[in-house]
Amino acid sequence: MQLPPELIKSLELLITTPILLVSLAISLRILPTILFASMGELVTEKSGVLNLGIEGIMLVGAFTAYMVTVAYGDPLVGLLAAILSGLVISVFFSYIAVVLGVNQAAAGLGIWLFGLGVTGALYNSMAPVGVSVKTLGSPLSVSSIAPILGSREVAELVVSLTSPLVVVSLALVPITYIFLRKTLWGLTVTSVGEDPASADAIGINVNRVRILATIYGGIMASIAGAYLSISYLGDFRHGMTAGRGFMALAMIYAGNWDPVRTFIASIALSYIDALQLSIASSSLELARRYYFFNMIPYIAVILIILVLGRRAKPPSALMKPFKKP
Amino acid sequence: MKRAKEIFLTITLYIVAILAGFMAASTVAVTYNIGFLDSLGILAFSPFADLFNFSEVLVRFIAIYTIALGVAIALKAGLWNIGGEGQFLVGAVMTLFIAKSLSTPHPALTMTTMILGAGFFAMAWALVPALLKARFGVNEIVTTLLLNIVASSFTLYALDGPIRGQGSFGYLLSDVLPSELRFPTLLKYPRVIETPSGVGLVWEDTRLSYALFITLAMAIILYIVVERSPIETHLGVVARSWRLASYAGINVFRIVVALMLFAGFTAGLSGALHIMGVLYRLDSGQIDHGFGYLAVLAAALGRAKIVGTALASIFISIVIIGSESLQRVSGAPYAITWVFVGTVMIAITIVEYIRGWRPSAATA
After folding, report:
1. What are A80-114's pLDDT values in tens digits?
2. pLDDT at B270
3. A249 touches chain B (CB under 8 A)
4. How many CA atoms lie within 13 A of B253 on its CB side?
5. Smallest Cβ distance to A103: which of B28, B340, B359?
6. What was the pLDDT predicted at B38?
7. B156:A113 CB<8 A
8. Is residue A88 part of a domain?
9. Where do the domains of chain B lie, and which CATH numbers do they carry?
10. Distances (CA, A) of A129 to A77, A133, B335
11. What residues of B are in contact with residue A119 (Cβ under 8 Å)?
12. Interface of A with B in 16-55 (CB under 8 A)
């Protein structure tokens, strides 16, 4: 069997350049989007609600953050606006999904398509053309610390690691773990997702817990979107989340609803994504094969599920609305 | 009397849901300096403006309904195939690949191979989500959606390689299908032209082809095989609970895989029909065609019934033509269609809640 030339070329590149280290820095910049979305959605799903609309909430969050940052010049205000947008959508979603108990899959898809449409259409009519905004980035810069650290690759890694939203997203992993495993609130969320009838019998307000968990997940999704537009790129593009929200959902499967395992799966995914990006951008010849490389992370997601998520067991009451008897 | 009242209520609720979608799209269109009522009018009436516009409605109907048939049958068992979007594309790619590389003694033989090849390739595309769902209970919505993104990249890759057209000059487009491999046109429309000797009438081809009959034939067969037989009930049991279904002696694994594969097949078929009857070639502009997602809306709106889905597909096609006219007039992007689709999708979940019909998603 003959390997495709682009594959051979990229394997050569892997051996001869510090591309592995560079990709680590890039993957740290890709990771927060998936982490914010998956850690938020994890809590939502643990409570028994599946919010497929996080992709749409991410898009709205990214768009809102970008527009407000353009208007006010301060990315922090943009971030707050994005959180507000996530709050509004998820309050609506939690009302129809939890209180009314509508079909969560259909409603979630609707929210995704609505977000996709509304941000695309409004971006075309309202956004200034090609304006990059001030980003919420690291206080350090590669050029200033590279001489001290002695290597450009290491400097890029440090800069990636000190970006505020990256730090917060990494901190979310232990926080989510401790919240779900060690606190009474976390156990309440889990019990509501596993056995709502029993939780109700011991006096837990099932639907209130679910509403709060859904709103929390929605806010995290909007931060994930805001991270993309005002921290990672400094720009908005139509459909810029490119399925990252759905990837986050897949990572929860792969991680079997465990924060740490979800984190490990997410790291693997972002690293593959980063590797693919840096290989494809390493030479013109390979850049021409962009479409070939672009498929890799999405196929990787499915492989990750195959390897890690085989014995995954969703919360028992996932997608099952609860009506007080 | 009670039943008539119920039907009336259902229709009213559906109209309200659709109006909500119109309102949302028109509200967004206001940012393009077009009046709210103007855009409502364009959305509602332009599809019926002339015969050509109406033939375009049917062109969209074929593409959407062919995919939606597979989506609807799977939805009966609580399975959501969102992958039609990508399966359509890989089917289209396969159609062109076969047309380019295969030569048979008779065009009809080649055309049959193209159609079936597209269907089976899209079926293979759906295999992994099908197995993951049936074996491990992995949410099929997530996997099929991610494969849509893979399919877009795959299509661009194919347009850049295996099915790249001669003289495409760096553009991503395929060769034009030779005329003997196309479906014949079904309908011509009259157009008035001015000639030096006066005003004349010419009959021009619409893009509506005989592919329509393939879609309709498939719908009728499915209606008889699925909705007029115990299969419908079996699927309903699977939708309610996998455990219940296996206690009832239903082989859930086999049914789930078969439904997901069948949904892939119809989507691939739709891609083949669209290439052979409408486009005759593929270019990078078709990547965001959207038929797969519209088909999901059609199946949901049609309550997973063959006839209901047909009506919903016709309706959605009308909306698409309306919104395309709106886009031409206002300069708004295609995204405005998704505002409509998303809003209606959310609205019908609420309508179904009021009606008390709640298909639960299949759970392991």
Report:
1. 999 999 999 999 999 999 988 888 888 898 999 99
2. 96
3. yes
4. 4
5. B359
6. 81
7. no
8. yes
9. 2-355 (1.10.3470)
10. 21, 12, 18
11. 335
12. 50, 52
Residue A315 lies in a domain: no
Q: Does A316 touch chain B (CB under 8 A)?
A: no
CA B322 to chain centre: 17
**SS3 state at A312:** coil
**B24 and A CB contact within 8 Å:** yes
How many CB pairs lie under 8 A apart between chains A and B? 170
Predicted local distance difference test score (pLDDT) of residue A175: 93
A32-57 burial: b if 16+ Cβ within 10 Å, else e: bbbbbbbbbbbbbbbbbbbbbbbbbb
Contact A295 B153 (CB under 8 A): yes
Please compute the mean of the pLDDT values over residues A288-304 and round it to a whole number.
80
The ipTM estimated for the assembled molecules is 0.83
**Cβ of residue A287 closer than 8 Å to a chain B Cβ:** no
Q: Which residue has the tokens 């028992």?
A: A316
User: Contact, B239 vs B77, CB < 8 A?
Assistant: yes
Q: What pLDDT is recorded for position A288?
A: 65
Check: CB of residue A8 under 8 Å from CB of residue A289.
Answer: no
Inter-chain touch A116–B335, beta carbons under 8 Å: yes
Estimate to the nearest angstrom the gap between the alpha carbon of A115 and the chain centroid: 16
For position B357, what pLDDT does the model report? 53
Q: Could you say which DSSP state residue B242 is in?
A: H
What local confidence, expressed as pLDDT, does residue A24 receive?
Answer: 78
Across the interface, whether the CB atoms of A250 and B24 are under 8 A apart is answered: no
| CATH number of the domain to which A221 belongs | 1.10.3470
Whether residues B343 and A309 touch (CB distance < 8 A) is answered with no
Contacts of A116 in chain B (CB under 8 A): 335, 338, 342
Residue A18 has pLDDT above 70, yes or no: no
Least confidently predicted of A47-61, A203-217, B171-185: B171-185
- The bridge status of strand B188-195 relative to strand B198-205 is antiparallel
* Percentage above 70 pLDDT, chain A: 90
B71 touches chain A (CB under 8 A): no
Burial A155-179 (b: 16+ CB within 10 A, else e): bbbbbbbebbbbeebbebbeebbeb
Rounded-to-integer distance, Cα B172 and Cα B161, Å: 9
Tokens of B181: 């491999």
Q: CA–CA distance from A250 to each of A273, A308, B131 (Å)?
A: 15, 11, 15
- Cβ <8 Å between A312 and B137: yes
Question: Is A56 inside any structural domain?
Answer: yes
The full length of chain A comes to 325
Report the pLDDT value the prediction gives residue B145, as an integer from 0 to 100: 86
Residues 87-116 of A with CB under 8 A from B: 96, 100-107, 109-116
Count of domains observed in chain A: 1
Nearest to A106 among B24, B149, B345 (CB): B345
CB contact (8 A) between residue A111 and residue B342: yes
pLDDT at B358: 46
Residues of chain B with pLDDT under 50: 358-364
Closest partner CB to B300 (pick from A106, A238, A305): A106
Domain extent, residue A238, equals 5-308
Considering CB atoms only, which of B138, B153, B343 is closest to A309?
A: B138
Asked whether residue A284 is assigned to any structural domain, the reply reads yes
Burial of A141 (0-12, 13-18, 19+ CB in 10 A): exposed
Predicted confidence at residue B359, as pLDDT, reads 45
pLDDT digits (tens, 9 = 90+) for A215-264: 999 999 999 999 988 888 777 888 788 888 888 988 888 888 899 989 98
Q: What is the pLDDT of residues A118-134, one digit of tens each?
A: 998 888 887 777 677 77
